[in-house]
Write a structure and sequence with these properties.
This protein is α/β, with parallel strands linked by helices and 355 residues long. It has helices at residues 9-18, 23-35, 49-58, 130-143, 166-177, 200-206, 220-226, 235-243, 267-276, 302-314, and strands spanning 2-3, 59-60, 65-71, 77-82, 88-96, 99-103, 107-109, 124-127, 153-156, 189-193, 210-214, 253-259, 282-288, 319-321. The protein contains ten helices and 14 strands. The strands form three sheets. It has a ten-stranded mixed sheet, covered by helices on one side. Helix 1 crosses helix 2 and helix 9 packs parallel to helix 10. It is elongated. The structure holds S-adenosyl-L-homocysteine. Residues 114, 116-117, 157, 161, 192-194, 214, 256, 258, 287, 289-290, 333-334 line the site of S-adenosyl-L-homocysteine.
Length: 355
């Protein structure tokens, strides 16, 4: 059975068109699914009954089952979702003022095995289909009430490496940015990569989304250790790909830099970072390491984080320190897929939807 979510709005019009169904019918279906969160064809009351039955016989409207929603004390919510073949992925809702950012996964697990990231430890399952990416946003939207509170921002910073699943990622973006989908402007969509250099030009050509690059180190020796992908695409090539990345005026590349105590948080690292990014329209996002059970790395003190940020600012880099969200529920950057420690007795951490 095919899935509605696997078609872009245009694609749905043409596939239904081949069955002799008028284009406005496709738009009606899309409105039900994306604007109203209705997945049951039987409830799509402005469609003729025979059409509802025909669609129900030919199409699924759901790719993922919701296993669990875990709420953080800061309002972040982590959704544990399951694919038809039993794959486990996570999506995160990060509310912040008027913003409702959804962080989605692009793969089941991840093949890159960055040494400080929990997802890498799961190993790699498979690429997600575009419908499975889209359904993560729908699953998050289902949690939002009232219904007019739609997701406003989207980041591909969950499990997986989006540039190793680019066709599905691009198709999901096409659906999600369409006004008949969620209407999320590409300016509010960020694709984060650990540095799959050969795929970067294609992303730049295909969609005017924001690019984030997970840098984390300023020498090949250290980056080889933290981000093993660096052995294939070393720093010089990565930085070159950033320099030639097509940016529109006033656009900047975000460089993510996880700060790890005594590993990459020294003054010499800061100085090299300034030199490395010289001339690239950039913004550095410092992420003090989010620790998770079993990691050998430590988060630096707030003072060293401040000092590092200060050194970058003095080198005329624009720098922000990412306030970690969802840290207490292992929903923060690099914690997805981490197993929680055994819960303390009598302290329920999670709520199942509908309870
Ligand atoms: N594979 C892509 C998409 C994942 S984004 C990428 O690497 O960019 C997830 C971000 O969280 C990346 O910048 C990653 O380096 C960062 N991260 C991973 N583990 C982390 C940890 N333990 N603490 C803080 N950030 C982490």
């Amino acid at each position: 059975m095919r899935s509605i979510l696997d078609y872009t709005p245009q694609g749905l019009r043409s596939i239904l068109g081949q069955a002799g169904i008028a284009p406005f019918r496709a738009d009606q279906v899309l409105r039900w699914v994306y604007a109203r969160g209705v997945r049951d064809f039987g409830q799509m009351s402005n469609l003729p009954r025979p059409l509802r039955a025909e669609l129900a016989a030919g199409f699924r409207t759901r790719e993922l089952a919701l296993d669990e929603v875990v709420a953080s004390s800061d309002g972040t919510r982590k959704l544990a979702l399951r694919t038809h073949d039993g794959g486990r992925i996570e999506a995160v809702l990060i509310p912040e003022g008027e913003r409702r950012t959804v962080c989605v996964s692009s793969q089941i697990g991840c093949s890159l095995d960055c040494s400080f990231c929990a997802t890498g430890r799961m190993g790699f399952g498979r690429n997600l289909g575009s419908g499975e990416i889209v359904d993560q946003v729908l699953a998050v939207a289902d949690l939002l009430t009232p219904l007019d509170e739609r997701p406003t921002h989207l980041v591909f910073m969950g499990m997986g490496e989006p540039l190793l699943n680019l066709p599905a990622v691009l198709q999901a973006i096409e659906t999600l940015r369409d006004p008949r989908g969620f209407g999320i402007s590409p300016r509010r969509i960020t694709v984060s990569t650990a540095g799959v250099v050969p795929r970067m030009p294609e992303l730049g050509r295909s969609a005017p989304v924001r690019l984030a690059v997970s840098l984390h180190a300023t020498t090949d020796a250290l980056r080889d250790e933290l981000v093993p992908l660096n052995k294939r695409f070393p720093l010089a090539r990565l930085i070159e790909a950033c320099r030639s990345y097509p940016l529109r005026p006033r656009d900047r590349i975000s460089f993510e830099y996880v700060l790890i105590a005594d590993v990459n948080d020294g003054a010499a690292d800061a100085r090299r970072l300034v030199r490395l990014l010289h001339g690239i329209p950039s913004k550095v996002n410092l992420i003090p390491l989010n620790e998770y059970p079993g990691t050998r790395y430590r988060r630096p003190s707030d003072t060293s984080v401040e000092l590092f940020a200060e050194l970058l600012a003095r080198g005329h880099l624009s720098v922000t320190v990412r306030r970690s969200r969802g840290d207490d529920i292992l929903a923060a950057c690099g914690q997805l897929g981490a197993k929680p420690p055994a819960p303390a007795a009598g302290a329920p951490r999670s709520s199942r939807p509908g309870r």
